[in-house]
Design brief:
mainly alpha; 226 residues
Length: 226
């Protein structure tokens, strides 16, 4: 999800939270309660000077500064993490902002959704809870993806090492063949030189013999003339 859609989603959550709170103040503020599912769910107006789900009552001022700090930290965290964490973080930030607006403007948070034994809450609390659950799920999946990616890298490394070793062996073989051919050529050259020298000597010997015979014949002719 791109940044524009995330901002729009965040604004929508804050707007829905503030609108439902205004409606709760208008229609339930006089102490009325509307039953949705008898004994399980109802709309009941209440105020909360504490944190979400009516926790830490009476600490409104401290929670204002804590809320500002948490929103700042989450905004920074959202700028450095993977995109799959952006929507859950946007929900958490928007929910925290919705309750922060109440604390700053009216000194308490308006709650109006009552479900069975669960503390009374509002749309902002729901956004924070759902966002936190989605964030945890994504983190777990991210951990699994990291393990899979790590194993994949190890496999690629092993495969790469095998290919490298194979290529290295091929190179060594080619190098060995070249050296063998070089040595073989050198041997053939030496052998050729030896054979050439042998033939050359034989030729020189034959030539020398012919010259010797020629001289002997000339000497014999000279003797015959005398």
């Amino acid at each position: 999800m791109d940044n524009k859609r995330l901002i729009l989603a965040g604004i929508s959550i804050i707007a829905l939270d503030q609108l439902t709170k205004k409606l709760a103040q208008a229609y339930l503020g006089s102490g009325h309660s509307i039953s949705i599912i008898p004994g399980i769910a109802s709309l009941t107006y209440t105020t909360n000077t504490g944190a979400g789900f009516s926790l830490f009552n009476g600490m409104n001022t401290a929670l204002i500064w804590l809320g500002i700090a948490i929103i700042g930290i989450l905004l920074y965290y959202a700028s450095v993490v993977d995109k799959r964490y952006h929507l859950p973080l946007a929900m958490i930030i928007s929910g925290a902002a919705g309750n922060l607006i109440d604390r700053i403007l009216i000194g308490h948070v308006v709650d109006f959704i009552s479900v069975w034994i669960w503390p009374v809450f509002n749309v902002a609390d729901s956004a924070v809870s759902i966002g936190a659950i989605c964030l945890i799920i994504n983190m777990v999946r991210g951990s699994d993806d990291t393990k899979v990616y790590k194993k994949s890298k190890e496999k690629d490394k092993i495969k790469g090492d095998k290919e490298y070793n194979k290529k290295s062996k091929e190179k060594d073989k080619i190098k060995g063949d070249k050296e063998y051919n070089k040595k073989s050529k050198e041997k053939d050259k030496i052998k050729g030189n030896k054979e050439y020298n042998k033939k050359s000597k034989e030729k020189d010997k034959i030539k020398g013999d012919k010259e010797y015979n020629k001289k002997e014949q000339n000497n014999l002719r000279k003797k015959d003339k005398k």
